[in-house]
Specification:
Largest sheet: 9 strands, mixed
Shape: globular
Strand content: 15-25%
Number of domains: 2
Number of strands: 18
Number of helices: 15
CATH superfamily of the largest domain: Dihydrodipicolinate Reductase, domain 2
CATH architecture of the largest domain: 2-Layer Sandwich
Radius of gyration: 24 Å
Helix content: 25-40%
Structural class: alpha/beta
Bound molecules: 6-O-phosphono-beta-D-glucopyranose
Length: 492
């Protein structure tokens, strides 16, 4: 693999929520990898911020523990941990009072001309308050950027309010709304496949594509995140952002370049062209589910309700739906979207099923001619499979066989597959917004999602139960089978 390390300018990364789960699980390990690859130049600082009273040494010990825990040993260069921790420091700051802000300002003063990124790894209820204080303490320099994590709101109204609040301090050019799915290798590969080859684009439309499936299945339950998750559910947690972003990349027109606005303009058009799902058709085209007790990886696991400790919760942990895009390219091509927790396996993939051949020249008994499929696997085993028909080798006449042309990235490229955050954290420093969501995209996604959530709320129906460790409620199978199709499995 040709592995390029693109240099960046010295920077200060200020991570609010620096002692939290995201920082320990994702941000510190990602920055550590970039450090080991020589991409963090001398003079950079990572400044963790939270309201907990902690010395630099105590934070350093916590950071070391996080690296130990979340980096697989095979990918951990232990000799680099001490030098990495030297660039990491800690400042105690209270997001909701003035406590600690002048300390932070003092620390940052010595780096006033560097690129400065504020990463808000905190709940969205704190975004406005933190941004206000960043502004009031004069911490925004021309080279400053803001990174915010999803969820951006819980509906259109709250998303607009959040965007307004952060927009009072930062210009749109400075705001990086992260959707870590856009940093995944296969997701970026989707653009390489579509726009780096002539093979696919002529077929990439309703004349040749029968339907598209996007599945993001997780085998884990909500675990300790129940407090947040119960206020969100699978629709807000996964569909409104990650899955719609994947759909946009599949469905968008070719942008004229990879420039941030060229790509985001095209994605926005897709979001605006999504056919509304309302009370009138919500029952036919959507399925909500919630897991009950079952088994995962051979172990008995609790129901969502028991994990949460609230037996009245009607929050969905599974969604399947049929989306449609009302434009020339996609009219009549269903996009079946599916995501859930505690499903049978952890598999995320985009499956493009082409139309069947118009006429078969093969005699009876040659075997079924299956439609071509292009399967882009996001995880695990990132890669691309193009399913095609071939002749089964050997004597016995013309026997057809459906086989995958299989490109597994891990087997083809002898390199570690970088985590999405590694790419995205450094894109912020480079000022490259291509893989980040613009304000109008987030709002357009809510404009489509809100009526579905409203229709569910009005219907007040409990989500369909599914056993943990299965593929979700049977209604989701019926959803696609009603149209004479099935969810893709990695076999014929
Ligand atoms: C997050 C969601 O954005 O994505 C989680 O909040 C989900 O609920 C996670 O588990 C999935 O990310 P990944 O990269 O593990 O597929």
């Amino acid at each position: 693999m040709t592995y390029r390390v693109i240099p960046v300018e010295p920077f200060d990364y200020v991570v609010f929520g620096g002692t939290g789960d995201l920082a320990r699980r994702k941000l510190l390990p990602a920055l550590f990898h970039r450090f080991c690859d020589g991409q963090i130049p001398a003079g950079c600082r990572i400044i963790a911020v939270s309201r907990r009273a902690m010395s630099d040494d105590e934070f350093s010990a916590a950071a070391r523990e996080a690296l130990d825990r979340y980096l697989p040993e095979a990918h951990r260069d232990d000799a680099q941990i001490d030098p990495f921790l030297e660039i990491v420091s800690y400042v105690e700051v209270d997001a909701v009072s003035d406590k600690g802000w002048s300390d932070l300002a003092n620390v940052l003063q010595s780096g006033a001309d560097k690129v400065r990124a504020f990463y808000l790894a905190v709940g969205p209820d704190l975004f406005g308050e933190i941004c206000g204080r960043i502004g009031a303490h004069g911490l925004v320099t021309p080279q400053t950027r803001l990174v915010v994590e999803k969820p951006i709101g819980k509906d259109l109204e709250s998303a607009c309010a959040l965007n307004d609040a952060i927009g009072e301090v930062f210009s749109e050019r400075q705001i990086f709304r992260i959707d870590h799915y856009l940093g995944k290798e296969t997701v970026q590969n989707l653009m390489a496949l579509r726009f780096g080859n002539v093979l696919f684009e002529p077929l990439w439309n309703s004349a040749h594509i029968d339907h598209v499936q996007i599945t993001v299945a997780e085998s884990l339950g909500v675990g300790t995140r129940g407090g947040y998750y119960d206020t969100a559910g699978a629709m807000r947690d996964m569909v409104q952002n990650h899955i719609l972003q994947l759909l946009c990349l599949v469905a968008m027109e070719p942008p004229d370049s990879l420039d941030a606005d060229s790509v985001r303009d095209e994605k926005l058009k897709v979001l605006k062209a999504l056919k509304p799902i309302t009370e009138d058709n919500v029952d036919q085209v959507t399925v909500r589910g919630q897991y009950k007790a079952g088994a995962s990886g051979g172990d008995a696991v609790k129901s969502y309700i028991d994990e949460l400790g609230n037996e009245t919760s009607n929050t969905e942990t599974f969604v399947a739906l049929k989306a449609e895009i009302a434009n020339w390219r996609w009219a009549g091509v269903p996009f079946y979207l599916r995501t859930g927790k505690r499903l049978a396996d952890r598999i995320s993939e985009i499956v493009i099923t082409f139309k069947p051949i118009p006429h078969s020249i093969f005699p009876k008994g040659s075997g079924t001619v299956h439609a071509n499929r292009l399967v882009m696997r996001l995880q695990p085993d990132e890669g691309v499979k193009q399913w095609i028909m071939i002749k089964d080798p050997g004597p016995g006449g013309m026997q057809l066989k459906y086989v995958p042309l299989d490109m597994s990235f891990s087997e083809t490229f002898d390199a570690r597959n970088p985590d999405a955050y590694e790419r995205l954290l450094l894109d912020v420093i480079r000022g490259n917004q291509t893989l980040f969501m613009r304000r109008d995209e987030v709002e357009a996604a809510w404009i489509w999602t809100d009526p579905i959530l409203d229709a569910w709320k009005r219907a007040a129906k409990a989500p369909s139960a599914y056993t943990a460790g299965t593929w979700g409620p049977s209604a989701s199978i019926a959803l696609i089978e009603r149209d004479g199709r099935t969810w893709h499995e990695d076999t014929v």
